[in-house]
Amino acid sequence: IMHKATTADPFTMMSLVSAQFLVLMGLAIYLVSRLFVDTLGRNMAAVIFTILGGSSFGYLLWLPRCLIGDNRGWGEISGSLAQIQKGVIGTTSFINNAGGVAWIVAKYMHSNPMVIASVLFMLLVYFVLRYVEDRRGSWLALSFVSLTGALLFHAISGIAFMVISAPAVFVVWLMKRRSPDFGSFRPVLALYAVFFLATIVSLPYLYPIIGQRSEVQSMQQGGGILAMMGSPVRRAAAIGMSCLVFIPLAIPSVASLARKRSPKNLFFLAMTAFLLLYTLFGPGTYHMMRKFYFYAFVLVAIMGSWTIPAVMKRFWTSLPKKLLLVFLMA
Q: Of 2, 4, 139, 271, which has the most beta carbons under 10 Å away?
């Protein structure tokens, strides 16, 4: 509609529309991060490095490529620049090749329901974390609205959240059932009720989608869903490549959250763990599992980004360490 109302290129109009949702995604990441760390630097690191995917320095490797190999000099530079294409498909493909699922910006190069649903997913994470923290009914209401929106805009986003958070909140109750801050089973039942009501409200829209099994059936004919998606080892390699930088960086953050053992910390850790487990062993189509990979990366990257300011401060003392830091981030 906006393209027909103006003379601008469709890709430009879609980028302008998606830019506002990218900002909202950054704001949602900041809200989630702020629940666990209280310094502005660490929170901004979570926003910046999660959105850039840790691959933002990868293009700096173009310069060394121009100095070694069979193709050198301006020929190599012009060849690399020629890979940048105009248009939605070309630009998205170029960015995906550079950063894979770890480059969130690629998700926002074209306007589609996944763009909005990913923002609702992160807001849902924030609202449920707040509910687990203080059990206020207002957070449940906001969770219901966000979950319904995620199911309606992109069903996989809402389904992914329910798949990982339903067992996560049960694990929190098991670990804290004898403590006064989360001893009752009522918060668990209340959250399950929100999941049920949001699904019922969205069912008239979801039912026709669930009935479309052509893609699943075609994949089953090719050897089964799990065979099409690959073995757990190949899945681990896929998610490992996306989170290669952030997995080691997240280890201190995971240890810190586990030591405090608050319901909020335990829920966030359990939710991330169940999401990673589903990406390794859960059934699903190729397009479905890419969404799980994406959300797994986001949660891991948030925890890993909290360590980056301290790492940069430690390494930013000499030129060799600066170059090593740039290489590791690339």
A: 271
